[in-house]
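As the work plan foresaw, the team has encoded backbone shapes as discrete tokens. One protein thus recorded appears below exactly as we store it.

:::
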Amino acid sequence: MEYPIALPPDLGLDVAGFVTAWNETPECSAVAKARLETTRGAQFSLGAATAVLGSVAASVAGAALYDSIKRLMARQGVRERMDVTRVDQPDGTQVLVVTVVKE
């Protein structure tokens, strides 16, 4: 399974930096391999480049994947509370959308 990730610009994270940090973190790379990919014109606007988590095993629960994303972002200095939501696209693909939770 593959999941593109939409990172909100207000987090100030570089997509390439996210991919590198994911692959260099043993707990994250054990769950999935990240790569940088040029957006393929998806319905959901992801910008020019997208982080894609590929080779995600079917046995990995969504909550475990979401928690890995949140932990990695916290290690990269993101202090805002975040939610990760899976959004089904009209073409059948799924996108993981990270949003900042406003208190």
User: Anything to note?
Assistant: The chain has a mean pLDDT of 82. The helical segments are 15-24, 26-29, 62-75. The first strand starts at residue 3 and ends at 6.
